[in-house]
Amino acid sequence: MPVENLHKSVLLTETVKLLNPQADELFVDATLGLGGHAEAILSAAENVKIIGIDQDTEAIEFAKEKLEKFGERIEIFHANFAEIKSVLKGEKVDGVLADLGVSSLQFDSAERGFSFRFDAELDMRMDRNSETETAAELLENLSETEIADLIYKFGEERNSRRIARRIVWKRELGEPIKTTKELVETVEKAIGRKPKDKIHPATRTFQALRIAVNGEIEILEKFIEDAIDVLKTDGRLAVITFHSLEDRIVKQTFQRLAGKCSCPPRLPQCQCGAKKEIEILTRKPLVSSAEELDENPRARSAKLRVCRKLN
After folding, report:
1. How far apart are the C-alpha atoms of 2 and 30, rounded to whole Å?
2. pLDDT at position 216, please?
């Protein structure tokens, strides 16, 4: 299948406009995916260069095919976006982009275990070459309380305790959950499913497990700090999120780095060390237009926040 048919990059026009690539500038696409955003940035001005980072070797192969026309203007590294400083080795850049969504390649690959539309092994690792525990292994090794806390924290699922209880009950029967279908059935039996439900009852549980398996939340705040650190003065960081937990972290981290004091209001003097390092360019997050949603329903939850480094 052609690369361009596998994945539509969300908020593409808005992202490129706010990153504002100029001739000869250097950017980092910290979540390269299939290369849609990178292609648009490379095409935006003469001799723009990109360093692409991705932990999914399958996605990297597709991106190489899509971007080979740009020759030496694109350099790709197999790494996690949290490793941006290690990849750059002290080099400063004009802009950084991180699209935190799961690509259609991953969702639509049955064997990856990201989606409950297919019956597959419950894997969910972005980097299948890593030694990270799979989602199935997490559900086999964590306690009932740990599973419930994980689903509640990362999935914002109100019925997390009922779901965790059912998962552990099956495990104690000698039937640990190994596949996506088994997890879907377990969640449905734990909390039920109504015909009028707009969102499948297993959606939040799948989201929570994916985030936990890949450590997505733990590394996000540090990534933002590191990304701003590698920017040149006036360089820009753009982050696209797909659920409220991620967006909240981006918003709060931007606010802190923009100098917003987090001390209790009654303190006579700021003690949190708030220092204005960035200017926030998106007062509210940008969301997809109606036209984009018609073409790509998966963009419905996407939010874009952008900031500029001050010095």
Report:
1. 23
2. 86
